[in-house]
């Protein structure tokens, strides 16, 4: 997703060290949900929902008990369970502290069980029931990161992906959008609208959604037989269709770069998401101010469309690897800007993102990109996951070259499509394509918090230039430093391999150097101070 400023203001100082291998919590790990089938009843009298969840699961390991996430009632908000069956029979359960525990529904590894839960309540979050900016009542799911449990019982962790169906029973004048394909849309005998959508690809709970509102629905065309549609507030019909219709122009570039689109449709939905945009699978929700008829949300669309491949189809196996979603969406947006608006526009964007990483690092030093210490996942919506993650991909592309980079990214998608992946999985795929070991590269940029902080001193010499580069940051790093040396005779670009605390270099030049520019092409994530020495 794209974060709003309000989210950034929640950030607090935090220091940690990360590990790739922090285990997934036991209760999330024990079960593998295969499919969710939800029926959700909505009404206009109050904000209470009634739900039925049919959850088909397989035990990933032997266990006595099975646990699901579902918010308990607290201050009038939350869910009350009306009935619960396992394998068609009522079973004892405990619903306390936002957790449903079925203490006798377990079994041995690979056993499958169908759990059926009926429940009701007023969602405190996760399903936003409110009025849109025109005062019309609407219902928008907004599950990221672990807010699905506010309105649907589930194994609320990105490692447990499943197919999902939503049947929404709503008053007749609402339209209903959800993940997947439309199965049926009809009126029942009392005139209520019964709409059923089914997503046959396994997706994480964070991107399972329904949107229920008065929508104007526009067909934006087909791309490789994928229908692209716009769902906007009727008051902004024309502007909304124009702005969101751009998705059909963006999609072919991604398919060409990454491989087949992962889902069966792409709906672009004006919504009440708390985020700037939320990449819900095949059903992107944008904030309600995102329409202006001028396509100023282009980069927002690009970012959320990129997530369909990375985040939704290839899903990080744990929150610590969130950069595999957000860093990818950030850098694929940079790459789109480069293709669409030119290299200078992309460099300007990268320079801005670099400044944001440096600013974040000054406010919250000591945090690596792979951040297994943070448990408030909203705080992972930070410049490490987004901008630094994007910069790591940028530097990887420069390091291994265009061919290896793009073929590697497409291969990574192909291998982990519909599954989970960790940073180590990406590293292995990219090593295959690069033909070199990338452990040092991944370690220094993702698994420790520092980036280069350089002191550069240079001096004109008879016939050239001498230069000294000091690394001042705690962790010694290895990287190429590109510099531009200018004088009356022109400008020369040279690369200096930096691999020790202090590097001295001499360059012979046919002119007297008068200035040195560090990183003229925006290729290094770092800071530096350049001093000419007399
Ligand atoms: Zn994102």
What portion of residues belong to β-strands?
25-35%
Distinct ligands: zinc ion
Largest sheet, in brief, is: 8 strands, mixed
Q: Examine the secondary-structure arrangement and name the CATH architecture of the largest domain.
A: Sandwich
Total helical segments: 11
Report the span from N to C terminus: 50 Å
Q: CATH homologous superfamily of the largest domain, by name?
A: tricorn interacting facor f3 domain
General shape: elongated
Unreliable segments of 5+ consecutive residues: 6-19
* Helical residue percent band: 25-40%
Detailed description of the structure:
The protein has four domains: 28-131 and 138-213, Immunoglobulin-like, CATH 2.60.40; 215-313, 2-Layer Sandwich (Zincin-like), CATH 3.30.2010.30; 317-447, Neutral Protease, domain 2 (Orthogonal Bundle); 453-532, Immunoglobulin-like (Sandwich). The strands form seven sheets. The protein has an eight-stranded mixed β-sheet. A five-stranded mixed β-sheet has the order 16-17-18-20-19. It contains eleven helices and 29 strands. By secondary structure, the protein is α+β, with helices and mostly antiparallel strands. Mean pLDDT is 95; it is low at 6-19. Helix 5 (298-309) crosses helix 6 (323-341). Bound molecules: zinc ion (ZN). The site of zinc ion (ZN) has 7 residues, from helix 5 and helix 6.
């Amino acid at each position: 997703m794209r974060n709003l400023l309000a989210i950034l203001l929640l950030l607090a100082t935090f220091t940690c060290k990360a590990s790739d291998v922090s285990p997934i919590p036991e209760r999330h790990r024990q079960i593998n949900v295969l499919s969710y089938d939800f029926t959700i009843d909505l009404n206009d009298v109050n904000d209470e929902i009634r739900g039925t969840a049919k959850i088909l699961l397989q035990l990933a390991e032997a266990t006595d008990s099975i646990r699901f996430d579902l918010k308990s009632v607290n201050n009038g908000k939350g869910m009350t369970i009306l009935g619960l069956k396992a394998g068609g029979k009522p079973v004892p359960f405990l619903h306390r502290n936002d957790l449903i525990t079925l203490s006798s529904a377990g079994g041995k590894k690979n056993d499958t069980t169908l759990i059926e839960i009926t429940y009701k309540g007023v969602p405190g979050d996760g399903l936003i029931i409110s009025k849109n900016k025109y005062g019309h009542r609407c219902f928008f799911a907004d599950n990221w990161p672990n807010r699905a449990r506010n309105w649907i019982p589930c194994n609320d962790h990105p490692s447990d992906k499943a197919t999902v169906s939503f049947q929404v029973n709503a008053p007749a004048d609402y339209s209903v959008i959800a993940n997947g394909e439309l199965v049926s849309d009809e009126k029942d005998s009392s005139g209520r609208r019964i709409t059923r959508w089914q997503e046959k690809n396994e997706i994480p709970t964070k991107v399972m959604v329904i949107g229920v509102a008065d929508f104007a629905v526009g067909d934006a065309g087909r791309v490789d037989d994928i229908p692209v549609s716009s769902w906007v507030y009727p008051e902004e019909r024309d502007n909304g269709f124009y702005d969101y219709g751009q998705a059909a122009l963006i999609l072919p570039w991604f398919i060409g770069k990454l491989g087949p689109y992962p889902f069966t449709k792409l709906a672009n939905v004006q919504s009440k998401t708390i985020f700037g945009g939320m990449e819900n699978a095949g059903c992107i929700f944008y904030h309600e101010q995102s329409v202006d008829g001028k396509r100023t949300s282009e980069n927002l669309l690009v970012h959320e469309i990129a997530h369909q491949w990375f985040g939704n189809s290839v899903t990080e196996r744990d929150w610590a690897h969130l950069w595999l979603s957000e860093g990818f969406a950030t850098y694929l947006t940079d790459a789109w800007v480069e293709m669409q608006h030119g290299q200078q526009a992309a460099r300007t964007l990268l320079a801005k993102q670099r400044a944001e990483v440096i600013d974040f690092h000054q406010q919250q030093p000591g945090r690596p990109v792979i951040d297994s210490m943070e448990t408030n996942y909203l705080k992972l919506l930070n410049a490490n996951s987004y901008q630094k993650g994007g910069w790591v991909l940028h530097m990887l592309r420069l390091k291994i070259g265009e061919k290896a980079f793009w073929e590697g990214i497409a291969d990574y998608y192909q291998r982990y499509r519909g599954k989970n992946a960790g940073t180590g999985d990406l590293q292995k795929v990219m090593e295959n394509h690069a033909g070199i070991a990338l452990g040092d590269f991944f370690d220094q940029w993702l698994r420790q918090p520092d980036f280069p902080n350089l002191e550069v001193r240079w001096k004109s010499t008879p016939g050239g230039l001498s230069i000294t580069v000091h690394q001042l940051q705690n962790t010694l790093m290895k990287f190429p430093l590109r510099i531009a040396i200018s004088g009356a005779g022109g400008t020369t670009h040279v690369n200096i391999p930096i691999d020790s605390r202090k590097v001295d270099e001499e360059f012979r030049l046919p002119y007297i150097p008068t200035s040195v520019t560090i990183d003229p092409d925006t290729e290094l994530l770092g800071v530096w101070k350049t001093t000419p020495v007399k």
